[in-house]
Amino acid sequence: MTRTHGARTVLAAKLAPPHETRAGALSAFSDTLQHYRDRCARALDVRLPAADAVPQRLHEAMRYATLDGGKRVRACLVYATGEALGVRLDLLDAPASAIELIHAYSLVHDDLPCMDNDDLRRGKPTCHRAYDEATALLVGDALQTLAFELLANDPTFAVSAEQRVKAVAALAAAAGASGMAGGQAIDLAAVGRQITIENLQDMHARKTGALIRAAVMLGALACERATAKQIAALDGYGRAIGLAFQIVDDILDVEGDTASLGKTAGADKARGKPTYPAVLGLEQAKERASELHAEALASLRPLGDNGAFLAGMAGFIIERTQ
């Protein structure tokens, strides 16, 4: 029998008295989420170069940009997807680290003066402010290549050569011109312009959604026994929550504050960036996020109780305030 934190959460909820069910389930979800985050932090710490290794400034900046901050949503999705399919957590450390390294690199580059020119990230100075622009550029380059090195060579990612190649290909597609980099290019070109909702959805699906979708796929690829039906269900789930994540980001840029977000609130509006609230209006943007949440939950039905934690992750993404 497949054993997962998600399945145990559902079982605990069924056995608990009615007034304790929701509180107990939420507590179990929070505990598991924190467990995944802590595990990812340890996995990244041992896989990043030591801060005192040559070249020290680059390695120190790589650790600065990656450790001690962030929600680790993508890594948690790798762990949760793998566990839903019966994969041991120690076999998921490398892909969880790889997805976080790609995400960290993208944030470092997004914050550069030639991109969004941000001063604050995760509640602290951005990498190019804490160090310098040249170092920040190299940090992004080094984090990106380290991610693929882990998928190709990390001995704890104990899958076949075919599965390793699939994992590398999935992450490359999500990070490249057809995914995150392409989405960023579309975003830059759209500043100050009116675009259609179809164009906006395509941009968001690439810029943010592709990497979240890839996180789910990396967890699935760690299980060589996964069926085509399970893979299709998980991919549908990843697509829905990936787009929902960016819509919520757009909403928080309007409704959030800098202290809570850990980055400058209202920056998208100030730069004239196209967002869901700008194109659809705030209430319709919230409705679209809710629709995607429902789509994500529907996609998980083939997993049964083993998809419970992933369902909780969909709710966490929709309801987050930072």
In short:
The chain has about 325 residues and is mainly alpha-helical.
Task: Work out the helicity level.
Answer: over 70%
Average predicted confidence as pLDDT? 88
Distance between the termini: 37 Å
The total tally of domains equals 1
Overall 3D form: globular
Could you describe the 3D structure shown?
The protein has a single domain (5-319), classed as Orthogonal Bundle (Farnesyl Diphosphate Synthase), CATH 1.10.600. Helices cover 71% and strands 1% of the residues. The protein has helices at 5-15, 18-47, 56-66, 73-84, 93-110, 127-130, 133-153, 161-175, 180-190, 197-221, 228-255, 258-261, 267-271, 276-280, 282-299, 308-319, and strands spanning 120-121, 124-125. A hairpin with a 2-residue loop joins strand 1 (120-121) and strand 2. Helix 11 (228-255) packs parallel to helix 16 (308-319). Mean pLDDT is 88; it is low at 1-20.
Label this structure with key terms.
two-stranded antiparallel sheet; disordered N terminus; 322 residues; mainly alpha; Farnesyl Diphosphate Synthase; 16 helices; single chain
Question: Strands, helices and their partners?
Answer:
Layout (H helix, E strand, L loop, with lengths): L4 H11 L2 H30 L8 H11 L6 H12 L8 H18 L9 E2 L2 E2 L1 H4 L2 H21 L7 H15 L4 H11 L6 H25 L6 H28 L2 H4 L5 H5 L4 H5 L1 H18 L8 H12 L3
Antiparallel strand pairs: 1-2
